[in-house]
Amino acid sequence: MNAKYIFVSGGVASSLGKGIISASLAKLLHARGLRVTIQKFDPYINVDPGTLNPYEHGECYVTDDGAETDLDLGHYERFLGVHTSKANNVTTGKIYHTVISKEREGAYLGKTVQIVPHITDEIKRRMLLLGKSGKYDIVITEIGGTVGDMESQPFVEAVRQLQWELPEEDCVTIHLTLVPYLSAAKELKTKPTQHSVQMLQQAGVQPDIIVCRTEHKLTSEIRRKVALFCNVKPGHVIESIDAPSIYQVPLNMKEEKLDWLVLEHFGMTDLPEPNLDNWNAFLRKLMNPKHKVDIALVGKYVELQDAYKSILESFVHAGAANECKVQVHSIHSEFLDESNVVSQLGSMDAVLVAPGFGERGLEGKIVAIRYAREHNVPFFGICLGMQMCVVEFARDVLGLRNAVSTEVNPSTDTPVIDLMEDQKSTTIKGGTMRLGAYDCKIEKGTLAYRIYGRETISERHRHRYEFNNDYLGAVESAGMKASGRNPETGLVEIVELPSHPFFIGVQFHPELKSTPECPQPIFVAFVKAAMEYRERKGKDNK
Ligand code: GLN
Questions:
Q1: C-alpha–C-alpha distance, residues 414 and 393, integer Å
Q2: DSSP class of residue 59?
């Protein structure tokens, strides 16, 4: 059987939740037994988001095979429970990079290289790539940006051509729009949706299904109006109402029969109903917590929720696993110091120090770590957060006052965190960090072993600096244990303090692999430790 293709575009405004709609549809199809993947085509010129500041584009999500990608791939993995790869995120930069390299190699000798057909052909090739691998029944392609943007035109043109080239029953196009509510007039307005669809039609693409993001229920009158003026069947106008949790959206889409409409188009109506038992069990726990905890998230990008997307979602999963509402309090590390640490962290049940790059806010992270270490507050450090707990320990316990990472001070005499050997000669910034999944061997009898319950784990990395093993002996003799190491290189991946109730730092990014149906074990244990700490302190936990 040929793979079937679903294209999802967006109009009227950005941030309507195209990624969540795509992931929800994927979830429903997957839950009916189909092999589904989702890919995102982003219209910006960066080759990948790896070089973007989190303020620009939120978190950079890393796949097992080491691709630095858009954070929507995180949603895809969390909803589907299926790993994505390099091929699942394509940008304008990647497309041009390929076409220009081919031009230099002489692949188009004699020809003028143009947006149509050369750029659009390369877009189409990549849109069909995963479908042709034979590994998937359904490929959902989300087009980033908003229809009408100059940047997305070649992508919309590629969809137009594919709609024409592929057999009709192999291709569905979905357009997500906004139906705003005017409170003064007490009315939902369809005109922006009409204009957005007209724009798509002008580009030659007729959507098969229109999904309307709305704050209020769509009346049948509104649905009829959208259908009539956008040229789709009346039953093909779908309501996407604001949901209390993004994880509720697959159920809303099932209610609206989005998956059914797609399957009807594909002539695949003989599939079983979606099996959502585990998903529903997760949602029940999420919506009915029996406990609560307050956890500090100490980082420097706290102004932007999306910068720590996967960490926040991991807390949602781990909270549900513990039937506990995790109230995450963002603490700006740049403004944290000895004078205000008690007022900022004193009421917290646990402290997480976030990943990051550069010097800004670093000393605040060290202050937070010292507070958690000295006051027996459950602590979890991720990547830069782990590196800083080594620096803090070296300074305060080993008495190495100048201990620092060479990321901050390349000429320090105490480089407890140092550039990896293979990074020293690297000058190019894009795609050159230690990226993707690596094995880690855990020592038995440690906190890490109790958490994972096995010796070999695999987690994803994204960093240039490492624990400097020249200091390993001294650090371990003083009471900090390197409980997880890379089996090939000996690099330290996990540190912990056996004398502390719960203190763990990890060089990798465990948040990238947490899903509602398979919550990440360190997050689950960390939330549990926070609950126990709260109980010990006699704070009400309801
Ligand atoms: N800046 C640190 C490094 O490059 C940590 C990176 C991170 O936290 N992802 O090693």
A1: 13
A2: P
